[in-house]
Structure formats: C-alpha cells, structure tokens
Amino acid sequence: MGVSTLSFEQIELLKSSPYVASVTVRQVSFTAEFKQRFYEEYTKGKSPKEILREMGINPETLGESRIVSIRMHAVQQGKSGHGFTDRKVQWSPSAIYGRAKTTEEKLARLEHELAYTRQELEFVEKSYRQIDMLPPE
Q1: pLDDT digits (tens, 9 = 90+) for 39-83
Q2: What residues have CB less than 8 Å from 122, skipping those under 6 apart?
Q3: Which of 28, 27, 49 is nearest to 38 (CA)?
Q4: Crossing angle for the helix pair 64-80 and 32-43, nearest 10 degrees?
Q5: Given 11, 92, 128, 137, which is the most exposed site by the fewest CB atoms within 10 A?
Q6: Plot region of 75 (φ>0 → left; ψ -120 to 50 → alpha; else → beta)
Q7: Who's near 48: CB < 8 A, 6+ residues apart?
Q8: Tally of CA atoms within 13 A in the half-sphere of 93 that contains its CB
Q9: Using CA atoms in the order 58, 62, 64, 69, what is the torsion angle rounded to 10 degrees?
Q10: How far apart are CA 61 and CA 68, in angstroms?
Q11: Helix, strand, coil shares of the chain as percentages rounded to 5?
C-alpha cells in the first residue's frame, strides 16, 4: 500500500502550519522544531495522532503510512544524538557524503567522484557506439 496523494486543499492547509517545511502531492517534510517536539511528546507516552492534533495537524490528512514514517524518523533522529534536522539540511551534499575533515579526505572523495564520472561517460559512449551514433575508436 503506497502513500496517498494529497489534494490541493490539504496541501494548502499543511502549508499554513509553522511545522511544515515543505509539502507536495506525495510528500510532507517537517521542521526540526516539529521533529524535536514530536519526539519529546512521544517519549512521554503520547500517541502520534494525539501529538499531531496538539500541534494543529489533522492526522487523517496525513494518513497512517505518513504517521508511521514521522514517528520512525523522529525517533531515529532523537536517538542518534545528532539533533533534529530539516529535510533541506538532511539531504545537502555535505550530509550525503559526509563532511570531509582533512585535505586527504576531500581529495579521496573528489578522486572517487572523478572515477565514477569517467565510468558513466564510458558507458554512454559505448551505448552510442552500439546504436551507431559515434564513430568507432
């Protein structure tokens, strides 16, 4: 069972919440403040739906699978000890690849990216040669 899509009215309602960082037809991203407060209330024993209602968000709008996901991510970030993040920060390049602390780490990461890019280019060139769009080597 997949995540249900949100209507225009539901999107507008969610956008009006100070706890929603962004919202699309399929995805709702919450602020770090929301996640922290959700985690704190959840660890006190409140149910996810009760917490959402207290924060002005209709649980029925989100649906069960989103509520499960919210709980999972909030608990995961709460237990990690690294604090809570907004989605934008969570998916930044430094978060994905890890912040390189030394010049050697930066160089190793760049060398890896270059090697990967070369492999991609070779693949594209081979594909075009197979369909006779490039002359043979």
Answers
A1: 999 999 999 999 999 999 999 999 999 999 999 988 988 888 877
A2: none
A3: 49
A4: 90
A5: 137
A6: alpha
A7: 38, 42, 59, 67, 68, 70, 71
A8: 5
A9: -120
A10: 13
A11: 60, 5, 35
- CB-CB contact of 14 with 6 (8 Å): yes
Of the candidates 89, 86, 94, 30, the one whose C-alpha atom is nearest the C-alpha of residue 57 is 30
- In the numeric block, the tokens 């369909």 are attached to 131
Q: Which tens digits make up the pLDDT trace of 116-126?
A: 889 988 888 88
Q: Which pLDDT score is estimated for 110?
A: 84
The pLDDT assigned to 122 comes to 87
Cα–Cα distance measured from residue 53 to residue 82, given in angstroms and rounded to the nearest whole number:
27
What token pair was written down for 128? 């075009």
- 20-37 pLDDT, tens digit per residue, is 988 889 889 899 899 999
